[in-house]
Design brief:
Layout lengths: L1 H5 L3 E6 L7 H9 L13 E7 L5 H15 L2 E8 L10 H12 L9 H16 L2 H9 L15 H17 L6
Parallel strand pairs: 1-2, 2-3
């Protein structure tokens, strides 16, 4: 885990097994479930890879992407290979966004609405439900932001994130001691 946390960027790869990621990768993700609440890899540039001799690449990459959104990484793209192009080398243009993001340390990342949604669900849970998470979010200056500080957020996404957070805080009531 330490190497994953300390690296400049992540390349997450998996073969496709039964239209999903490998069991080894799934086990690794399961061991990082606390990263949904207290991520040590936020804004880390990440490239996704998948290969198969058959089908299921899209479902597999989407499954891995869901975990990455929960981790709060900078998604820089994906590369896939199947039976028709399995031996095709990876080209520099396929790595361009990842390399650029690593060089920028994840700064200037533009998150999707889904990423802002997930972040604000996590922020609400930290605010109202999990005291351990709240402490982490406050110590890392995350609790008052609609998304991680280094990201570029336009006014519409800021409004969306703040409105969502306020709504969720009303719906998800604080836990009484």
């Amino acid at each position: 885990m330490k190497k994953v946390i300390e690296c400049d960027g992540l390349i997450i790869g998996t073969p496709v097994y039964l239209n999903n990621m490998s069991g080894v990768l799934k086990n690794f993700f399961d061991r990082t479930c606390s990263w949904f609440h207290r991520t040590p890899v936020s804004q880390k540039p990440t490239l996704l890879l998948a290969n198969t001799q058959g089908s299921g690449i899209k479902k597999t990459l989407n499954s891995v992407k869901e975990v990455m959104i929960q981790w709060g990484v900078c998604l820089t793209g994906s590369i896939s290979r199947n039976g028709r192009n399995f031996n095709k080398p990876i080209k520099r243009h396929e790595l361009k966004n990842f390399i650029t993001s690593v060089n920028l340390n994840g700064y200037e990342y533009i998150p999707s609405f889904k990423e802002i949604y997930t972040y604000n669900v996590q922020r609400t849970l930290a605010t109202n439900v999990f005291p351990v998470d709240k402490k982490y979010w406050e110590e890392n200056n995350l609790i008052d932001s609609v998304y991680f500080k280094s990201a570029k957020i336009n006014l519409i996404k800021k409004f969306y994130g703040n409105a969502l957070y306020k709504f969720l805080c009303k719906v998800i009531k604080p836990i009484e001691n």
